[in-house]
Amino acid sequence: MQGDLVILFALIDYLCPPMDLLENLNDAQRAAVSNYKCPSLIVAGAGSGKTRVLTSRIAYMLQQGVEPWKILALTFTNKAAAEMRERIGRMVGEEQSRRLWMGTFHSIFLRILRLEADKIGYPSSFTIYDTADSRNLLKHIIKEMNLSDDTYKPAAVQARISLAKNNLITANAYAADEAFALEDRDRKQPALAAIYNEYARRCKHNGAMDFDDMLLNINILFKDHSDVLERWQKRFDYILVDEYQDTNYAQYIIIRRLAQHHSQVCVVGDDSQSIYSFRGAKIENILRFKSDFPAAQTFKLEQNYRSTQNIVGAANSVIERNANRLPKESFSSGTEGEKIKVIKAYTDKEEASLVADEIRSRIRSGGAGWGDVAILYRTNAQSRAFEESLRRRGIPYRIYGGMSFYQRKEVKDVLAYMHLIVNPRDDEAFRRVVNYPTRGIGDVTVARLSEAASARGISLFEAAREGAAEVNAGTQKRIKDFADLIDGFSVQRDQLSLYDFGLEVATRSGIIGSYRTENTPEAQSALDNIEELLNSMRTFTSDSVDDDGVTLPPTLTDWLQSITLLTDQDEDNSGDHVTLMTIHAAKGLEYKYVFIVGMEEQLFPSPRSVNSGEDLEEERRLFYVAITRAKEAVALSHCASRFKWGSVEPCSPSRFIKEIDPKYIDNADDEEASSELNRLWDVKKIQQTSAGRNFGHQNSFSEHAGSSNRNHAERFAARGQHGQNERHAGISDAGHGQISSAPPAGNFKPVTHTTRPTVADSGNYAAGQRVAHAKFGIGTITAVEQVTGDTKISVNFDTGGARTLLAKFAKLAIVG
DNA sequence: CGGACGAGGATTTTT
DNA sequence: TCCTCGTCCG
Predict the structure, then answer these.
(1) Backbone φ/ψ region at A646: left (φ over 0), alpha (ψ -120 to 50), beta
(2) What residues are paired with A378 via a beta bridge?
(3) Distance A722 CA to B1 C1' (A)
(4) Annotation marks residue A410 as catalytic
(5) Which element (helix H / strand E) includes A347?
């Protein structure tokens, strides 16, 4: 009998042998995977197979018999968590992987908070406020306290409160702290402590937490309830943290608390990629891990599998200038590859054109698709010009960030109804929807309701339901009708499917009807977005799993919170389009070709960072992150002038360009041309001030006038998110033609030039002509364009590569 | 109470 | 230049 079993197991092993997880790893990776029984610091350079190591380590632990629910794995995005879960599932089976406690800090601790909410005085159905919600509440409070929102800018107040929370300073602690009081007095904001206090009170009263509250409250829970803490400590034998360099103090303390007794902590990260200090992230957390956990072993993953030698070399030459680093030698296992290209332009407009041209010629030459290309910038505002240039050429693109789908007014309105239904205590949600769509309950009435509510210590919604406000009979009825509407929804919530319920809310609230009657492109777009939102209810499946691995049916609460906790990176990034995003958003992603644009002083590094050594180091790390996204080629672009705040500002090349070791840069000796360019710009500026508008100025003015002609629907189409935008981005060029079909100049306002002025010396060159250049050899002119003081000539050189040259410097000889 | 129109501010990065 | 907020008037 025994023997039979052995044979049976052997047979099973033979038929489906357990995957050898240590195979196909390099030595450093293998060590990091197999030594799981000790605290570990895995320093993972860019492209070093970090995710692979993390997933293999977890899978290996499972294979060695560790129970999946004893493992807590924390990531920064849902996407990263989902991806890892999937990969682990492929290694050891889904049965195991789905039972792991794996997710973002916020989603995991939210789960715990919901279970323990009563212990810290919250309903388990508490609402989550996103940044906009919490800012609105702050605005309210500042106004109510009769403070000027000029001295108390809501965004700044919010940032300060956020910073306090990230450092586990509660409102009471803040008020009691002399140093803060002094600082606030110096900043002429003595009421900050009072605002913080009122904000915290209102959040609690509303049964709501903001993002920072989740981390703060879990710490309060663990601090005040040692039995609860102990239960969760025992729960997790192993804790793994991804992107450890980006954890803040609150997160750090949570990990330390949970690990206090017996858990083995494994953190993975790269100090060179710490780019979130503005949000409270502490690079020190990773730098001092070894002193926090003296028994820790360090594993260094230094082999870069992603990028070419030139890219890794260039990135290293930059990051080496930072003082505050863990020692590490990144090296590439790839080919030498292309050198880094620097693209110089006169204006932001031209920068976008040159980049788009370069993208097009790269893709046309074969071997890669649009999806292999990313345009990365420092600020979201830079996306506009590229949007234009890509659209004009019919290149499919997609923009990430900026106004996200879930921040749209119409979407937030529908969500506010849901929030109020789930949590009737949420006064902010109440205020948002009580008179939207308009139902004759105005500010005056809400003020009366508010009085009644605070007098009786109840929520606005309860006050509405009880008819507590002193108003005339007609208004009273309207209030009652609204309360009945919401109560009706609460009943339906338990009877209908998620999707049917959503449709019911969107319809019976009157939101859909009001957009229907509007009958404008904007309204149609809003309807599309609402439909999209409802569709996401249909396809939503809860990832809530109990310890037996049984998936729980999705609830409205699950769906709402999954939406609030979505991050930019969680969006589907597949598809054959050029990707436009901020460098921050690009962390963790990779592309064959990366264009880092706007490489200028006053932009990148950000002007706010240049006065502090630490901040400048962070900007440098940001640049490092940008370069290391590329697998095969990097191009940097900058321009001599940029449209900012409605006027043209001169720009000089970023110091970061000069920080790259010149041996990694394509024609590094071309620097002269760049300074020529700047000199030229200075001349231009003088002309501008002395002789009024010159052509260059007028051109850029007119082009902006042209771009403003885009209607809302079109902009939505281009900026929209979630699937439908992919479609729009693809067709935007053909579909909404006023910009793409006619030659650009034709669309501009009549007051400006419709053709470019011709200057005498342009006669020497023409498209199609063959020319010779001292350095690049022979090529064919593809375009000739007049710019102030010179002629710009685009040439396709036979040796490969298109180039834009200035007649003055290039000294082209006409061939034949 | 709600829509229209005018003034002024905006650009770091985001879980 | 664009968007948001506040005010004024119907």
Answers:
(1) left
(2) none
(3) 37
(4) no
(5) strand A341-347
pLDDT tens for each residue of A520-577: 777 887 888 888 889 888 888 766 666 566 666 788 988 988 888 877 667 666 778 9
Answer whether residue A727 shows pLDDT above 70: no
- Look over chain A and give the mean of its residue pLDDT values, rounded to a whole number: 80
Cβ-based neighbours of A233, under 8 Å, separated by 6 or more = A257, A258, A259, A260, A261, A262, A263
Higher pLDDT, A612 or A247: A247
Which bases of strand B sit closer than 7 A to a protein CB? Answer: 1-3, 10-15
Residue nearest to nucleotide B2 (CA to C1'): A438
Cα A441 from Cα A22, distance rounded (Å):
66
Phi, psi (5° rounding) for residue A83? -65, -45
pLDDT in tens, A73-132: 999 888 889 899 999 999 999 989 999 999 999 999 999 999 999 999 999 989 999 888
pLDDT at A602 over 50: yes
Provide the β-strand partners of residue A41. A267, A298
CA distances from A187 to A10, A152, A161, A195 (A): 73, 10, 15, 15
Nucleotide nearest to A708 (CA to C1'): C1
Sign of CA dihedral A220, A222, A226, A231: positive
Active-site residue (options: A30, A50, A165, A792): A50
Question: Please, is A24 exposed, middle or buried when counting C-beta atoms within 10 Å of its C-beta (0-12, 13-18, 19+)?
Answer: exposed
User: In angstroms, what CA-CA distances link A567 with A282, A621, A717?
Assistant: 20, 22, 20
Express each pLDDT in A124-163 by its tens digit.
Answer: 989 999 888 888 888 888 888 888 777 788 888 888 899 8
A452/A470 Cα distance (integer angstroms): 8
Report pLDDT for A702: 25
Higher model confidence: residue A779 or residue A459?
A459
Distance A333 CA to B7 C1' (A): 59
% residues pLDDT > 70 (chain A): 77
| Gap from A753 CA to C8 C1', Å | 40
Contact yes or no for A410/A511 (Cβ under 8 A): yes
A131 touches strand B (CB under 7 A): yes
